[in-house]
Amino acid sequence: TLLNILTDSNVYVEDKLFATLDTSTRLLNLPSDTGEKTLSRYPKKVLISDTVGFIKNLPHDLIESFRSTLAEAVESDILLNIIDVSNPNYEEHTEVVNETLKEIGAENKFIINVFNKIDKLENSEILKDIKEKFENSVFISAAKGINISSLLDMIAGRIKKEHSEKFINLEPDDYKRLSYLFETTEVKEVKYLKKGIKIKISN
Q1: What is the third-level CATH fold of 2-163?
Q2: Could you give the 3-state DSSP secondary structure of residue 34?
Q3: Domain boundary assignment for the chain
Q4: Which of 24, 86, 139, 185 meets the CB 3.0–4.6 Å disulfide criterion with 120?
Q5: Quick check: 1 and 142 in contact, CB under 8 A?
């Protein structure tokens, strides 16, 4: 649901374990520094992927089977840990996520804890305790569209901090990857050199 809201997509959604094992990747527009809150006017672009959910005591053979799917987490710059805050066992679920991230070698990634379904909470006071326990937390309702802009601002702030500008070197004839960079990032400069293509991008 959240992926669809963030990217204006129509990815298959079902409240069922392993409803899909495929990783869905979409283009996400992020907020600018001007404080604009209209999604369609966000100029920054990143790729966001929705991976298979994690379960407790996942057998090692299944971890190996899912490794290609979970590889998205290893290669990502930021992880969004989507937590159903209306579920009484949300803390246990978070521990499962952390254990699985360790299994696949992604335990040191920057994580934004996204506590979803706040509209279903009978006692909102619980959010104060959660904020003290979990760093980098944001409270939303994907279904109701509550606090989505706060999540986008948090993602954009982190990306700006870690990836303001960088250079990428490509092979002289790697036009496919060059085209991909133009589609998914802001290309500031391109230099065609004898040894290859040097691109300056802003994430």
Answers
A1: Rossmann fold (3.40.50)
A2: coil
A3: 2-163, 165-203
A4: 86
A5: yes
